[in-house]
Amino acid sequence: MKVPFFRLSSGKEEIENVTSVINSGWLTTGKWARELESNFADHCGVKHALAVNSCTAALHLSVEALGIGPGDKVLVPSLTFTASAEVIRYVGADPVFLDVDPETLLLRPDDVDRAFSKDDQIKAMIVVHFGGQSAQLDGVNGLLNVSKKHGVRIIQDAAHAFPAEDTYGPVGSVGDITCFSFYANKTITSGEGGMLVTNDEDVAHRVKLMRLHGIDRDVWDRFVGSRASSWVYDVKAPGFKYNMPDLNAAVAVAQFRKAGRFRDQRAAIVNHYREAFCSLSGVRLLHSRVPDKSHSHHLFPIVLGDGSKCSRDEFIEAMAEKGIGTSVHYRPLHRMTYYRNRYRLDERDFPNTESYWKGCVSLPVYPAMSQAELEYVIRNVKELLA
Ligand SMILES: *Cc1c(COP(=O)(O)O)cnc(C)c1O
């Protein structure tokens, strides 16, 4: 049997939508991107949802719209994908890397508070909802209050966290800006794509401008607007080419409708995993800080500790021999050549991230996984580690 690390769930709805886009003759940004935007605005309960061609683009537009630039710093966890930090460099600012909570892998408000107090060049932070559970934003000691106290803006990297909820509501409903990803193996996909949501009028205005060449009216407005003046536009800034084509948006619109069901299917797989692996010696499972339903369950990492039957690398190798795909999320950024050299980062400053990363391995969890595949994964994990 072969169980890949990820397999797409897609059906006739995606194909029908894409066919309809092609038949319409309008392939780039248009009514499908608009529809996806209104789906996200409704879901998050926010005023503005802006579709772009990746979450990386959304993150870049976020720091740009907040006016972050050279001389500024932005806080980010070391345990994330490089996109969360590279966008800080795009605008000439510098990342400040932080360790995470050992149980949840999320930023701890106390650490964040301390970092802000030490360094007033920090103008924003990028909060990563690791694996699909929301970081602690609300509450007296939550990140929203901490950032307010220091006048720091909050960008959420919710690439893993759609759909996810917390006590404050859906991820994306609070904070300055939230960015979602529709990359090929994320919880819903458009092949490539992203969404930025915000209630901030200035941010929304700037992002709309900058996602399409700095042109003051978007292509769609020119297309559907008054024919007579459809050639008129002005360039207000050297913007980017970050708009989401309808070909992609049409896929995401179909996926959006299934997102809740997909989440429940991943949750069911995770429950089976938890039950099967909770008593394996030397194997650590992560903790949820939110009720299970609030978690998008994008990732299911287990951590092989000192007492485990084999090392992480041996485990990955042995699983591959059985035809089972696994992955590592992530080799932390403080270990990546660019960040380590440029910012002279030291592993000893990231003890929790270190102990997680040395033993972590993510198991397959996606709606297209069959019962037989699930049982096959569980049986093989147990054979290797029990
Ligand atoms: C996938 C991912 C991104 C980037 O998303 P793209 O849509 O591929 O640009 C950013 N941050 C995290 C944590 C991710 O996992």
Descriptive account of the structure:
- The protein has 386 residues and is α/β, with parallel strands linked by helices.
- The chain has helices at residues 12-24, 31-44, 55-65, 83-90, 109-118, 143-150, 201-210, 219-224, 246-277, 312-321, 337-342, 351-359, 371-385; strands at residues 48-52, 73-77, 94-98, 122-128, 153-157, 165-166, 169-170, 177-181, 194-198, 283-285, 300-304, 360-363.
- The strands form three sheets. A seven-stranded mixed sheet has the order 1-9-8-5-4-2-3, sandwiched between helices.
- Helix 1 (12-24) packs antiparallel against helix 9 and helix 3 (55-65) packs across helix 4.
- Bound molecules: pyridoxal-5'-phosphate.
- Residues 54-56, 80-81, 83-84, 128, 157, 159-160, 181, 183, 194 line the site of pyridoxal-5'-phosphate (PLP).
What is the topology?
Layout: H1 12-24, H2 31-44, E1 48-52, H3 55-65, E2 73-77, H4 83-90, E3 94-98, H5 109-118, E4 122-128, H6 143-150, E5 153-157, E6 165-166, E7 169-170, E8 177-181, E9 194-198, H7 201-210, H8 219-224, H9 246-277, E10 283-285, E11 300-304, H10 312-321, H11 337-342, H12 351-359, E12 360-363, H13 371-385
Parallel strand pairs: 2-3, 2-4, 4-5, 5-8
Antiparallel strand pairs: 1-9, 6-7, 8-9, 10-11, 11-12
Bound molecules: pyridoxal-5'-phosphate (PLP).
Pyridoxal-5'-phosphate is lined by residues 54-56, 80-81, 83-84, 128, 157, 159-160, 181, 183, 194.
Main beta sheet: 7 strands, mixed
User: β content, as a range?
Assistant: 5-15%
Poorly predicted tracts of residues: none
Please list the strands of the largest sheet in the order they lie side by side: 1-9-8-5-4-2-3
Measured on Cα atoms, how large is the radius of gyration?
A: 21 Å
Q: Could you give the count of β-strands?
A: 12
Sum up the overall morphology in one term: globular
Mean pLDDT value: 95
SSE order in H/E notation? Answer: HHEHEHEHEHEEEEEHHHEEHHHEH
- Helix share, percent: 25-40%
End-to-end separation in angstroms reads 21 Å
SS element count, helices: 13
Structural class: alpha/beta
Q: Which molecules other than protein and nucleic acid are bound?
A: pyridoxal-5'-phosphate
